Amino acid sequence: MSRILDIWSRMSSTSSSVMPIRVNTLRCRTSSDVIRAMSFAPSFESAGSVTKGVVSGQDRLPKTSQWFQERLPLTLATDGSNMGPMVTKVKKIGIAGCGTIGRRVASELDAGSIPGATLVALNSRNIQRAKEFASTLSNPVPVLTLHEMAQAVDLVVEAAPGAAMNDIATATLSAGKDLMALSGGALLERDDLFDMAERNGAKVYVPSGAIAGLDGVASACAGEIDSITMITRKPPGGLKGAPGVEGMDLDAVTEPTVVYEGPVQEACRLFPANVNVSAALSMAGIGPNKTAILIYADPTVTRNTHEIQVEGEFGKLTIKIENVPSPENPRTGKLSALSALATLRRITSHIQIGT
Question: Rounded to 10 degrees, what is the CA torsion of 144, 132, 329, 173?
Fold first, then answer.
């Protein structure tokens, strides 16, 4: 693609009488190629050419709405049609954590699947593992310390175990850089991190994760809310290792069994790798001490299931999600990684959809 753009640049700059060339679509592997292609668009048009769009790997991801796809910020038309605004700056992304979610997000960024974002660094407690993964990327990036990465990026995606949240968030926010926190439960104990973000002009993003409907919850909270309850059912094996089931023989569970009932605040402490979605729900709603959650070890289900019930002056809202567990990590649903990718897409877009 870079070679094609070089040739096109020379052709368009030599004469306005260049033979008309019609281009239906340019598919660019990297964000830099996308930006270059966009900058050449006026030259294409002046040479009698017509470009129908500049696409940066967006078809590698499951589609969002067709309407939104037609208006992605890195999509451009010079034939007079209105395909949306252009991005003027590519966000530099660093990823802290090279587990299931971190690797998926890194791979999509490397493939150019997020218009307006480019991967520039990785961080992991297991440095060798991170370096091995980085070497598999089409455009390998360095493995940096948290402080080095914070200086090199615009936004850090936290995709590490909850115990690492403090170090990741502190290094990122103290440098005035934005943070996407996937371990939302760990944030509930650290109000000071939000103060740090405000002082340094940084933003904290908490994706929906493996649930849906947070826009409706946020809208409902503009009025009076009576209650918010979340009911989570997971295969017993998906709860192994959680402090909340310590001493319990999950292999012996033969029927749906309640392993926790109470406020989200305590649930996130007892199940730090299992119910981060409840933290996001509580932040969007009435807080972690007023939001209730029931957690079942359920051998009758094969998917991680979440049911959300909200009641208030608006009426009643019920949402049910059945997530396919990740083959690499049964504690994590596939939707969690997709939610992180969707959040990155929203951050870099000039179009915001939903509440």
Answer: 10
Task: Let me know if residue 95 belongs to a domain.
Answer: yes
Any idea what DSSP says for residue 90?
P
Strands 225-234, 292-297: parallel, antiparallel or unpaired by DSSP? parallel
> What is residue 234's predicted lDDT score, i.e. its pLDDT?
94
Q: Which structural domain range is residue 99 located in? A: 91-210+337-348
350 catalytically annotated: no
DSSP 35-66: HHHHHHHHHHHHTT-EE--EE-SGGGSPP--H
Whether 52 and 143 share a structural domain? no
Query: Is there a single domain that holds both residue 341 and residue 259?
Result: no
Locate tokens 């990327």: which residue?
137
Nearest to 351 by CA among 45, 64, 27: 64
Q: Classify residue 105: in a domain, yes or no.
A: yes
Most confident of 49-53, 126-130, 159-163: 126-130
233 inside domain: yes
The span from the CA of 351 to the CA of 267, in Å, is 35
Q: How confident is residue 84, by pLDDT bands cut at 50, 70 and 90?
A: very low
275-325 residue pLDDT tens: 989 999 999 999 999 999 999 999 999 999 999 999 999 999 999 999 887
Q: Which ranges of the chain would DSSP assign to H, the alpha helix?
A: 2-14, 31-46, 66-69, 100-110, 127-134, 146-152, 165-174, 184-187, 191-199, 214-220, 264-270, 276-284, 334-348
Separation CA 78–CA 51 (nearest Å): 6
Of 172, 184, 190, which Cα lies nearest the Cα of 209?
184
Q: Output the pTM of the full model.
A: 0.73
Domain count, the chain: 3
Q: Which of 91, 234, 306, 334 is catalytic?
A: 306
* Cβ–Cβ < 8 Å for 324, 303: yes
- Record the tokens describing residue 16, joined without a space: 């306005």
- Which CATH number covers residue 238? 3.30.360.10
d(CA 345, CA 76): 17
Interior/surface letters 32-45, b for 16+ CB within 10 angstroms, e for the rest: bbbbbbbebbebbb
Q: Angle 334-348/100-110 helices, nearest 10 degrees?
A: 40
The residue-averaged pLDDT of 159-181 equals 95
